[in-house]
């Protein structure tokens, strides 16, 4: 295999890898968007079961949105410092832990902590983690999916 052939293989692999990253990013946004768009479906059943009050339960959603959006600059700094892979993996772990806590929250403060944890995780992939060279384009393309 000549030098030119090796370069061509590397370029093709990188191009393929970027498409895989874009697809994974869109999938991640779709999974987290389900939490955002479907949250109101869970409020009434949670209130019926725990009698916390709908306004108190909705505060958890507000905490999720605030931590998801306002911590993105910090998470972007973490991407610059440590690279995208550990930030995305940490974000995935945070989202998974937050969802588990959401499912089994025995008291309202646990629901609030779960919202903050999952908000941190949801913001982690938005922090240009899956496309460091052109972060705006893939994020915009992913949000225009619907």
TrEMBL record:
<keyword id="KW-1133">Transmembrane helix</keyword>
<dbReference type="InterPro" id="IPR020846">
    <property type="entry name" value="MFS_dom"/>
</dbReference>
<feature type="transmembrane region" description="Helical">
    <location>
        <begin position="51"/>
        <end position="71"/>
    </location>
</feature>
<dbReference type="InterPro" id="IPR036259">
    <property type="entry name" value="MFS_trans_sf"/>
</dbReference>
<feature type="transmembrane region" description="Helical">
    <location>
        <begin position="107"/>
        <end position="127"/>
    </location>
</feature>
<dbReference type="InterPro" id="IPR050327">
    <property type="entry name" value="Proton-linked_MCT"/>
</dbReference>
<dbReference type="GO" id="GO:0022857">
    <property type="term" value="F:transmembrane transporter activity"/>
</dbReference>
<dbReference type="InterPro" id="IPR011701">
    <property type="entry name" value="MFS"/>
</dbReference>
<keyword id="KW-0472">Membrane</keyword>
<protein>
    <submittedName>
        <fullName>MFS family permease</fullName>
    </submittedName>
</protein>
<feature type="domain" description="Major facilitator superfamily (MFS) profile">
    <location>
        <begin position="1"/>
        <end position="146"/>
    </location>
</feature>
<feature type="transmembrane region" description="Helical">
    <location>
        <begin position="20"/>
        <end position="39"/>
    </location>
</feature>
<keyword id="KW-0812">Transmembrane</keyword>
<feature type="transmembrane region" description="Helical">
    <location>
        <begin position="83"/>
        <end position="101"/>
    </location>
</feature>
<dbReference type="Pfam" id="PF07690">
    <property type="entry name" value="MFS_1"/>
</dbReference>
């Amino acid at each position: 295999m000549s030098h030119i052939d090796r370069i061509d293989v590397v370029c093709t692999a990188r191009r393929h890898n970027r498409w895989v990253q874009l697809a994974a990013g869109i999938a991640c946004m779709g999974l987290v968007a389900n939490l955002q768009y479907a949250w109101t479906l869970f409020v009434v059943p949670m209130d019926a079961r725990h009698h916390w009050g709908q306004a108190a339960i909705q505060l958890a959603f507000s905490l999720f949105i605030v931590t998801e959006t306002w911590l993105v600059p910090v998470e972007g700094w973490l991407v610059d410092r440590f690279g995208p892979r550990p930030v995305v993996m940490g974000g995935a772990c945070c989202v998974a832990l937050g969802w588990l806590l959401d499912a089994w929250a025995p008291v309202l403060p646990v629901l609030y902590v779960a919202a903050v944890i999952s908000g941190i995780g949801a913001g982690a992939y938005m922090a240009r983690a899956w496309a460091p060279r052109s972060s705006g384009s893939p994020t915009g393309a992913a949000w225009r999916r619907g």
